Amino acid sequence: MTSKNSRLDPMDLFDIRSELTDDELLVKDTVARFADEKAIPLMREAFENHTFPKELIPQVAELGLLGSSIEGYDCAGMNSISYGLICQELERADSGLRSFVSVQSSLVMYPIYTFGSEEQKQRWLPAMAKGEAIGCFGLTEPQGGSDPGNMKTHAKKDGTDWILNGAKMWITNGTIADAAVVWAKTDEGIKGFIVEKDMPGFTTQEIENKFSLRASITAALFFDNVRVPEASVLPGVSSLRGPLSCLTQARYGITWGVIGAAQACLDEVLNYTQDRVLFGNPLASTQAIQIRLADMSRRITTAQLLSLRLGHIKDAGNLSPTQVSMAKWNNCRAAIDIARDARDILGGAGISAEYSPIRHMLNLESVITYEGTETVHQLAVGRELTGISAFG
């Protein structure tokens, strides 16, 4: 605990650290050290060059960060708080790195673990945990966006196989994935298919010229009469419940991840405003700057408490998607506002890649949009409060 005579931690004003178990602290500190020493030094150049630092994948895997919440299959079996802390520390480096881990863990390994056959689990989960196999998640479509029910990708039975046709858009890891968990309409409901990269008719195309998530691979997936064997169909689900449950897992991690991006921005402007002297005084001594810094801290603290409570609810098995929607909405909004204000406080320096807020700001434009836009999450909470759906 913090003594009465010492200053509070600017990144942890309500001492969330004291609420963590020894195992959770070990995870946080280990991933924080990895982020500081290995990831952050690569991220500026990766963002500028529009490349994903693939050399980090073996290190991420060695730390047990892929599929960290899964029990068995060479996975770490950590709790939800630990997974959240992983996301927080990785996104402190860059949203692209956290996105890679989120997709591999929550959107690929989770559905295989939850809905897959034992043979599918044995084949894919250990390899994915080791980073030897990379996955991607195919749900969003060019015309679908926030309405996954408007799915055009479809699969029809042909003997013991399925013939898959359609396209998916905005797919993280798409061009480096060894397998894609693809959701498609069938006569038996919406099913998940494990589509391997070398299956004839399956092609990918990287999306270029992004101003956001430049240190992340984003792709389009195309399926032209792809023959998928029955053994590659996830047997445990035949409805939208499957992909939506995966999104709930990913959104939970995002609520923690964006805290890391916000902390990175606050840390940078705290240092900058103490060193930057204008009109004979450091910027940090002015009322206007202190009020803005205090507001950043308020937003971060609120987000930390929300995600910590959410993690405890999740570990207790009582998580509601509406609770995740509120946290994703609140925390993403807080983080992007902090990043924008931090960029402004830096003045002209704020547009330089020498400082991280503009990179985080641009990344958060994607994070506040993917896994459900802010409006979608607001309407999800509104539906819970009123019992009336305003969608459609």
Provide an overview of this structure.
The chain has 3 domains: 16-129, Butyryl-Coa Dehydrogenase, subunit A, domain 1; 135-232, Butyryl-CoA Dehydrogenase, subunit A, domain 2 (Beta Barrel); 241-386, Up-down Bundle (Butyryl-CoA Dehydrogenase, subunit A, domain 3), CATH 1.20.140. The protein is globular and about 80 Å long. The longest helix is centred in the middle third of the chain and has 35 residues, at 241-275. The chain has helices at 22-49, 57-62, 80-93, 95-115, 118-129, 241-275, 287-315, 321-345, 357-367, 374-386, and strands spanning 135-138, 154-158, 161-172, 179-186, 189-196, 202-206, 218-229, 277-278, 281-282. It is an alpha+beta fold.
Task: Give a short summary of the structure.
This protein has 392 residues and is α+β, with helices and mostly antiparallel strands. The chain has ten helices and nine strands.
Count of separate DSSP helical elements: 10
Structural class: alpha+beta
Give the SSE string.
Answer: HHHHHEEEEEEEHEEHHHH
Oligomeric status of the shown chains?
A: single chain
Full CATH superfamily name of the largest domain: Butyryl-CoA Dehydrogenase, subunit A, domain 3
Apparent shape: globular
Largest sheet composition: 4 strands, antiparallel
- Indicate the CATH class of the largest domain: Mainly Alpha
Q: Could you report the average pLDDT, rounded to the nearest whole number?
A: 95
- Would you tell me which CATH topology of the largest domain applies? Butyryl-CoA Dehydrogenase, subunit A, domain 3
Give start-end ranges of low-pLDDT stretches: none
Percent in helix: 40-55%
**What is Rg?**
21 Å
